[in-house]
């Protein structure tokens, strides 16, 4: 491998030491996808590794003092393969070692960090961060990077089992030295992925997050974690029911989506002699889009996504199947008294065009909101079930609700709390695009 000249690395390191952060090495930041003017030569890199399923199962049953043989039998009882999990773990570990050795061979100081150890101090220490895992690890890494000039690079360490849409092309998993060479020579593009920021205000709110990445929490455990963090914070503040008159900016940024809704999808309500089971607890809230009037809604929850997230959950919430398109077109043709060529090709084209309209570029400075399964009656309405916006405000009327950021960080969001979701150029994430 042709290494970056050591003198360049030393000069780069001295610039970082003087300035305290990584200076942009690209053309003016006004463009969201830009060609670098010079190579990308970090001095210190943090490699954040995912927790494999094998590691998770070990941690999960460690408290019971299980041996490896006990773990094998327990996994077999659950229909999981111990040897299969160990094989995937070894593949991941080998690929992480390959990335670390490649960085060290290029004269770069490396710090390997597990997901549970990743925090703001690690972000401050590093000039760049490598996410070694899949898309979930990339989302975790991105959530804590608040400086838009700090690059984040994703490496898919198990390409056969992970999509890795947010990572480098799969071939660089086994050829990371080549990726480093191209970064050093400037043969890549910066992609500035737009993210969402969250402001929280109102009564009884708790801006302390519960991290869901390392914990496979039951609903009861999840609620207990929120209650513990709430009590601890209130005791420190000396307040039982704190209120935030001014919006408080939460310490995370969302690269994919924010979901707001009740925690319970089912609950049992017991009355004297009359047990009742409610199969669904709807989320009750008020919503205002782009400063418009507040609208009361009940639904299965609200999703707000970026262009990056528009290919994920948001897409699956809103996409239509050919069967639905065909039925609507038949009714429309009948009502209008016209003939439509409802061939397979025509239906496929209409369906694909509609579904494609749900996806937008990751660098676009706007958001897309989706109301899941809205309830409409004389009290509650849903004038628009989905749409693009620059700001969405939500006032909670829920009893046991959460805001979940990128599926990994949860905030309480109960009656009286107000969340404002916006986009800002300051929150863009600096990522790398490499050709195949």
UniProtKB/TrEMBL annotation:
GO process terms (BP): NAD+ metabolic process; NADP+ biosynthetic process
Recorded GO CC terms: mitochondrion
This protein's name: NAD kinase 2, mitochondrial
Localization (cell): Mitochondrion
GO-annotated molecular function: ATP binding; NAD+ kinase activity; protein homodimerization activity
Catalysed reaction, written as an equation: NAD(+) + ATP = ADP + NADP(+) + H(+)
Family to which this protein belongs: Belongs to the NAD kinase family.
Keyword list, A-Z: ATP-binding, Kinase, Mitochondrion, NAD, NADP, Nucleotide-binding, Transferase
Organism for this UniProt entry: Poecilia mexicana
One Pfam family hit: NAD_kinase
Superkingdom, taxonomy of origin: Eukaryota
Tagged with keyword Ubl conjugation: no
InterPro entries with a match to the protein in the record: ATP-NAD_kinase_N (IPR017438), ATP-NAD_kinase_PpnK-typ_C (IPR017437), NAD/diacylglycerol_kinase_sf (IPR016064), NADK (IPR002504), NADK2_mit (IPR012355)
Listed EC numbers: 2.7.1.23
Function statement: Mitochondrial NAD(+) kinase that phosphorylates NAD(+) to yield NADP(+). Can use both ATP or inorganic polyphosphate as the phosphoryl donor.
Subunit details: Homodimer.
Keyword Kinase among record annotations: yes
